[in-house]
Amino acid sequence: MPNDKVLPRNQSLPLFNPHVADFICETEASKVPPIDAQAEDWFLQARALEDPEIFVEDRDYKKIVDLTRQAAERLHWKAMLNLASLYVEGRDPLYGNEEAVQLVEKAMRLGIPAAYDRMGTYYANSTGVKGDITRAYAFWQKAAQMGNPQSLAFLGEKLTAGEDHPGIDMWSNIPIATKMLECAVAQGYGPAAYDLYYLYAAPRTADGTIIGDHRTPETKDRALKILHEGVRLGCAQCARDLSIEFSQPFNLSDILVPFIDKARGERYAVLNRALSFNPNRRFPNLDKILPLPPADLPPWDGQRKSLLDAAMGARPPPAIPKPSAASLSKEPYFLAADYALRPTGLHSDAPAAPFSAYWQPAGGQGVIQPARLFRQDEEFPHFSVSDAAGKASYGPVTWEQCLTLRHNHGAVEPRAVHGVLREVALPEPWLSCACEQACPVSGVWQPWVAADHPLQAIVNQYWRQAWLAQGAPFPRPRRDWLLDLPDDDVTWHLMDASLPDLG
């Protein structure tokens, strides 16, 4: 059992073991608290204000901090960690390294894998704690075991050596390195694909010995596909290497690609430059404009914008919400019509709100009150409640947290920071398909699960989109995403059936 008196930064963890015999791929999204929709909007607004197109000196960091803090107060886990980064960067003069560490500790208490990854980085960099690389690796190992893709990719790369070199933080454990990197890619972390490409191109035994010939047509094909997948998921290095391989390979006698194709190379070069400038970009519909051979290369007018638009994610115009009872109410019961409320099942008997959220008296107490917004540490009111014998008493009640959701009647509307999605009109007719069906229409398809599904945070993402040709199979969650998710839980929706007019 954890010792609540020990600060999370000081907790005892097993030492990093680079020679573990097995590894189970966990999914970070299944470990984190559900994300409040209103907090998500604040978080995305803050992210948009840090767009690479805006010079650092021109960014409104006061507003960025305020929006990020608002989201963090709702326990938006990404906002909590971003706020910690803003403190470390000195973007809020009232808070610094110690407050950043405390915020990360709060996230650790919530069981957030990325918080363990961040604490490892703090120990590695002596940020608010005494530097200790041994403790850093212990925290990174814990984060990886919990499914954090950044720790998985970092440690996976460290295990790719042919033999142990602890002096330079490299060890040999190829099977586990492969599993870790695959687990990171399956969660949408593109940079892990780059290290995985080397392992696929020349498969090796656990001690680093190359199996068979250096590179075979089969291993090259697998390596080529993982690099291409890396580009879809935002890996600039993957795009750079594919540009070189198709245009000017270093060794013509052992090229990765099936043939030289300078036109393909130029397109990858454009994507590399875009990703190097803005690492937040993703190109889920890459196959629409840059499919792998032997598929023919679609026409392109040579314009950077048209290439990026074709490859980026798509979403429909946001649904116009209808007024709700909460949107017509006054503070603290007011909630904008863009949102609805859903009880979470999280109860509190504390005298005050443990964190900022909408709260309502839990059912079964004879108290009927609409949910209202409470700030952290704001006192909960008391009520007159009758017991089973009918005797009334005045005092505290149990409260239940309510989460804000999009008030869009279940519309398929992936969310993302401004500028990484293009808005498209919904195709007519509106098509939805099950996983086991063949794709009925060529176009951009979005996978989706119910809003209350435990894996919705890893499935209902724009980077899960895919450009599919008519007759192609839909991706399968277990086979293609390494998710313990039945096919029947996922529905694919047609987002865009238009073809780019690119020459």
Summarize the structure.
The protein has 503 residues and is an alpha+beta fold.
Supply the number of helical segments.
15
Helix content: 25-40%
Assess the beta-strand content as a share of residues. Answer: 5-15%
Please report the distance between the alpha carbons of the first and last residues. Answer: 64 Å
Describe the strand arrangement of the main beta sheet, using strand numbers: 4-9-5-6
* Basic shape: globular
Low-confidence stretches: none
SSE ordering: HHHHHHHEEHHHHHHEEEEEEEEEEHEHE
Rg value: 25 Å
Q: Output mean pLDDT.
A: 94
Helix and strand composition category: alpha+beta
Characterize the main sheet: 4 strands, antiparallel
